[in-house]
Amino acid sequence: MKGTVRDGYVGLDMGTGTGILLVAAYVQARRHGVVRPELMGVEYDTVVAERTGLLLGRLGVGRVVAADARDVSAYSDVLVQPVNFVANETIPAMTQRMQSEHFSEIHAALFQAGAQWLRETVFFPEVLVAVEPRSDASVVLSRQNRFQIPKYYRRLNVYPRAMILEGRLTGLSRLGKDFTGLVPAQVRRFLPRRW
């Protein structure tokens, strides 16, 4: 974790879903001595936002707002101070074009809403690597380019392949493999293979 966060911790999860990444941010902040981290999730599905928000609120983890994470105004009340952590796992499956999900659009709205508050932010993923199969060209999406696909590649079919987590390049097909044994066999068949 960069710098000191004892005096405060602001975390944001764009496309919150179940809120698991907000729980992870809460645990991280508490481990670093933050008594009351400020965590917010943005979820497009109003029913999911309501249920996840209710659960996380009762647990004292944070809040979830029902909003479109591609809308700059969704961040108006959280981007008023430096943000420590941002999660955006709206990454398409490896068989889908990058344009099939809103990963880059969500980051564009976030940076438009308050780039000045994101200078020291830790992002999940840190870097997303996508490939254009015909030319075998790799496209790197990171904070440096605000997680945007370069203009030339926006018209082409670019597919996600890997991400950098904690400084290591990890293929999307490898994510979660270390934890397969922790999930009962009868449950595994119901899990989506998104990545």
Question: Would you write up a description of this structure?
Answer:
Helices cover 22% and strands 23% of the residues. It has four helices and nine strands, in the order βαβαββαβββββα. The radius of gyration is 17 Å and the shape is globular. Helix 1 links the parallel strand 1 and strand 2. The strands form two sheets. It has a five-stranded parallel sheet with strand order 3-2-1-4-5. Strands 7-6-8-9 form a four-stranded antiparallel sheet, with no helix packed on it. The relative contact order is 0.13. It has 195 residues and is α/β, with parallel strands linked by helices.
Key features of this structure:
195 residues, alpha/beta, five-stranded parallel β-sheet, four-stranded antiparallel β-sheet
Q: Specify the structural class.
A: alpha/beta
Q: Which spans of ≥5 residues are poorly predicted at pLDDT below 50? A: none
Q: Biggest sheet, in brief?
A: 5 strands, parallel
Strand order of the largest sheet: 3-2-1-4-5
Tally of individual helices: 4
Provide a quick synopsis of the model.
This protein has 195 residues and is of the alpha/beta class. It contains four helices and nine strands; from the N terminus they run βαβαββαβββββα.
